[in-house]
Amino acid sequence: MSEKYDVLVVGSGPGGYVAAIRAAQLGLRTAVVERDRLGGICLNWGCIPTKAMLHGADVAHTLANLEPLGFRAAGVTFDMAGLVKFSRSVSERLSNGIGYLLRKNGVEVITGTARLAGRGEIDVAADGARTRYRADHTILATGARPRSIPGVAPDGERVWTYFQALTPPSLPESLLVVGSGAIGVEFASLYRDLGTAVTLVEAMPRIMPAEDATVAEHVRKRFADRGITVHQGASVSGVDAGIDAVTTTLTLSDGSAEKITTERVLVAAGIQGNVEDLGLEEAGVEVERGFVRTDEWCRTTAFGVYAIGDVAGAPCLAHKASHEGVLCVEKLAGVEHVRPLDRRRVPACTYARPQVAHLGLTEEQARATGRRLRVGRFDYTASGKALAIGEGDGFVKTVFDADTGELLGAHMVGPEVTEQIQGFGIAQSLEATTEDLAEVVFAHPTLSEAMHESVLAALGRSLNS
After folding, report:
1. Which of 55, 218, 358, 444 does the annotation list as catalytic?
2. Alpha helices, DSSP H only, in 145-279?
3. N vs C: which end of the chain shows fewer Cβ within 10 Å?
4. Where is average pLDDT lowest: 113-122, 149-158, 179-188, 350-359?
């Protein structure tokens, strides 16, 4: 007889392991199937190791700007292998921690590659053998992988994906990054701070196309100030990888061609869901544009099969995956008062220099709804705390419905904004209005005061700008 579970989760990333733990907490017999390391791409090759690497880049930036604070550092050396080792150690520690959490909550871990095998049945292949399991509920949390570009084939040597960018054999002298979403922008910023000459290429008319236009332009200018060459509205028409370098042919926005030779090329042009070899078609699970189609409760088109996280589509963010994992399990377990996720309220963060964070609609999107708007903005150049830490660059922008006071969008670029955006998320969740937020007392001096000032500016009551 095959093993029988109430819930079987395929994948142990931030969606999968959280879903499994919550299911076990609710008294359901639960197992997780993982073919590689616990924690998935996010913990092993995405969110966590990139932030460890970016911390190293922040240290490099600090060391390069000591004199205004009265310090001088001589004889400082840098070893790329040491930073990579630190990054990998953080991932390993957290992966082991997930194993502990799963054991603590009574979740069984099955090592292997899963495939749907019929209603309520899952085959898991490992070490040449195949074992069949049964489950009342199967949750697909298989994540995503780097999206390929026609004519640009990563070889792991000269043409990288983020896997190689996180474990380089040495610091490249020059790097061309294709794609300016969060991944591309973070790696461009990281490598530039470490001393690499960086070129950033974006096919859309502006970099960071998902961000508010004012934020994207601010980042472009700051990147240019840092010596990063930015090509907007440019496409890659050819890549010629040699023994020691890569020559990339670009078609620029004016139709002209330009060849750029760099030591490495990083392809960071988005991701695609891991939907292959799961038996989806045979099981009746529909796939749209490379992602599993789900309803508001994460149910797929096949009975008893659910999908969460990146494999279920945008926004492809770890915290969205974790939230979906919880609501999916609580709904199928019959927990009361479960609410579906409003994907428009999921914050998005980019941990470059400068940092970027946003929530809700851009100003352009808000105006397209036909509503009357109140838009407020406050620059960090007028923030005492920002100036005191030498980070007086960037701004906070808020977009409100002028008639109802509803917070439609919040956009931040500058120091530690990724740690502050949740304040607007709480406000939106509690349906706080412009006037409500204006009455909140913010501590002084803090970076978060800029959030308050932006709200006041939307009301025409700015006090410090």
Report:
1. 444
2. 162-166, 182-194, 213-225
3. N
4. 149-158
Q: Cα(259)–Cα(239) distance, rounded to whole angstroms?
A: 9
Residue with tokens 């500016």: 457
> Tokens 């392809």 label which residue?
267
- The residue behind tokens 């490495």 is 264
Q: What does residue 255 show for φ and ψ, rounded to 5 degrees?
A: 90, -10
| Beta strands per DSSP E along 254-394 | 257-262, 264-267, 271-273, 287-288, 291-292, 305-307, 348-350, 355-360, 373-379
Q: In the beta sheet, which residues pair with residue 305?
A: 138
**Are the C-beta atoms of residues 368 and 58 closer than 8 Å to each other?**
no
Residue 121 vs residues 115, 137, 283: alpha-carbon distances, Å? 9, 10, 10
**The Cα angle at residue 433 between residues 429 and 438, in degrees rounded to 5:** 115
91 residue type, one letter: S
Q: Which of 115, 183, 143, 103 is nearest to 321 (CA)?
A: 143
- Predicted pLDDT at 152: 87
Max Cα distance, the chain (Å): 72
Helix (H, G, I), strand (E, B) or coil at 461: coil
Q: Identify whether 323 is a catalytic site residue.
A: no
Task: Please give the Cα distance from 73 to 373 (Å, whole number).
Answer: 50
Asked whether 356 and 419 are in contact (CB, 8 A), the reply is: no
* Rounded-to-integer distance, Cα 179 and Cα 266, Å: 9
* Distances, alpha carbon 440 to alpha carbons 326, 423, 443, in Å: 31, 11, 10
Residue 69's identity, in one-letter code, is L
- Residue whose token pair is 């001088």: 72
Element (H or E) spanning 113, and its range? strand 113-118
**Residue 419 half-sphere exposure, CB side, CA atoms within 13 Å?**
6
How far apart (Å, rounded) are the C-alpha atoms in residues 339 and 214?
33
CA 403, CA 255: separation in Å to the nearest integer? Answer: 45
Report the distance separating Cα 450 and Cα 384, nearest Å. Answer: 10
DSSP, collapsed to helix, strand or coil, labels residue 414 as strand
- For 128-139, write each residue's pLDDT tens digit: 999 999 999 999
| Cα 67 to Cα 18, 72, 414, distances in angstroms | 46, 6, 22
Chain mean position to CA 161: 15
Distance CA 133, CA 56 (A): 44
Residue 299 DSSP one-character state: B
Q: What is the pTM of this model?
A: 0.95
> Could you tell me the two tokens for 207?
């970099």
